Amino acid sequence: MTPVHFIRRCYGYAILSYGNDVKTIDITYRNWTKHVNNALESMRIQNSIANLAVRDALTGVYSRTGIERNIQSLVDRMSDPKNKFFIAIGDLDGLKKINDNFGHNSGDVAIKAIADAFMASAKNHEICARIGGDEFVIIGCNDYSDNYPERFAARVHDRLEVYNKFADNEFETAVSIGGVCRRITDIHELEDMFTQADKIMYANKKERHKNRK
85, 78 in Cβ contact below 8 A? Predict the structure, then answer.
């Protein structure tokens, strides 16, 4: 039994049996394991490069390219008359203040926390993506209730409340969210939904800012 590895990265183990004979590992087996090790490492690198094209490096959620490559799975569900499209946009509150007072690393920590809260609150195979420095979008198509945007936002805020309680950061991580949910028959209607969700998000941000004063 020998490890299948590349330098210090272990992929698993290979087992060679000679039956009841006692033999040492021969050159053929050593060469075979070397080729397997190199092949697995090559596949890992190729998969990592491909993943970079669709995933945001900081947060692990989809990038804009990731949305484009995965949106078709949601569009295919649009033909079902009971399904509605759902779009929610979230924008981190006070990123400039966090960066200025605690450093950009803290800003990255807050951005990652928002991404984690969005992903943890997603259901029904929704697509979550980072579309700007501190802006996120989640898109889905399912038999949603009319109040699903409010329910989604509540889940995100609840998760961030728990995060802030235990994260021991010097700052609070919060997000403003705007969501829209409705039945559409044409993919081009998504642009209008995006604009509407964006307006709701900024109205929510303005209201939250006023309440904090």
Answer: yes
- What does the pLDDT profile of the chain (213 residues) look like in tens digits? 777 777 777 778 877 776 776 666 677 777 777 777 777 766 755 555 445 568 888 998 999 888 888 888 898 999 899 999 999 999 999 999 999 999 999 999 999 999 999 999 998 789 999 998 899 999 999 999 999 999 999 999 999 999 999 998 999 999 999 999 999 988 889 999 999 999 999 999 998 777 776
Whole-prediction pTM: 0.75
Instruction: Look at residues 166, 140, 162, 164 and name the one whose alpha carbon lies nearest to residue 152.
Output: 140
- DSSP-based three-state secondary structure for 163: helix
Q: Are strands 84-92 and 175-182 parallel, antiparallel or unpaired?
A: antiparallel
Q: Which residues pair with 13 in a beta bridge?
A: 3
